[in-house]
Design the sequence.
DNA sequence: GAAAGTTTTTGGAAATTTTCCAAGGATGCT
DNA sequence: AGCATCCTTGGAAAATTTCCAAAAACTTTC
């Protein structure tokens, strides 16, 4: 695990961010989970064994990490901004029963052809959101 | 335009909603524009020539219209919930310069094949969000 | 390794957006 | 028209995010 910590430190430094315990913790937490937590969920998780990061710091850290491209937002529900440390291109699936979000690997869906779009519209990035079905936990038997 | 108004009234009634001036106005406004406005933008637009709908009513109307499936949310920016009266399946394009959102007709992108997804995951709906390029207003030169 | 110069953290206040509430008003049915 | 129900309203409340100035921490420099 020490190697993992070193790698996080090197990553943060490489992006020009100072390595503080709070920022480290936010990024480490996001890297370790795949449930696309909200800022509040991250704050609670970090502080569950004694206070380590204030609310304002978590927001600030998330913003800093997002600005340098280490994490990104996932917006699938009204009024809920979730975060994801998986910055490789990928798609999302949301369970229609419990709302859980899981990743869909990029190569599980074929590449799209944008030739039919109106001229002059050059695509830099796209993403597919899939609704329906049930996640592992909600699967009916 | 009278026919358009009658049609809106019939549509609302058919969904079991009472036709009030405020609810009519919210739906009419959304039908008439394609810029995916926020609740605040709708409120301001409706009240620009004298007060017609309170803030709470606009939110309430939007919620009622969404519950019966006449409008839907569009979530592309953090903390911003936009609304769209186009409920036919379609995709969205967001201009990377000004953030404007425009629709992409469903048949301009090929249908996706979900065979590669894990078993048991039946897809009920999906949607593609395209970032990049420039909208008509931001087109360079 | 201490001082200097930044950047970051913090708690609390403030801003923003959305929801709640109870009262009065409007709508659709008979 | 009368009635039951649903809707609107202003204001308060809730929920989420940002701002602020002071204190603390990180990095660099000497």
Sequence:
């Amino acid at each position: 695990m020490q190697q993992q910590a070193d790698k996080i430190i090197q990553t943060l430094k490489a992006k020009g961010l100072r390595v503080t315990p709070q920022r480290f913790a936010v990024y480490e937490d996001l890297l370790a989970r795949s449930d696309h937590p909200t800022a509040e969920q991250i704050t609670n998780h970090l502080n569950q064994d004694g206070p380590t990061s204030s609310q304002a710091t978590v927001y600030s850290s998330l913003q800093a990490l997002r600005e340098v491209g280490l994490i990104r937002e996932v917006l699938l529900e009204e009024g809920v901004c979730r975060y994801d440390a998986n910055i490789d291109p990928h798609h999302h699936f949301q369970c229609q029963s419990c709302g859980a979000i899981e990743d869909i690997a990029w190569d599980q869906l074929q590449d799209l052809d944008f030739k039919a779009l109106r001229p002059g519209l050059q695509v830099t990035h796209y993403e597919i959101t899939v609704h329906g079905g049930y996640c592992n936990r909600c699967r009916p038997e």
Observations:
- The helical segments of chain B are 2-14, 21-32, 39-46, 55-67.
- DSSP finds four helices and five strands in chain B.
- Chain B has a mean pLDDT of 92.
- The CA atoms of residues 43 and 103 of chain B lie 23 Å apart.
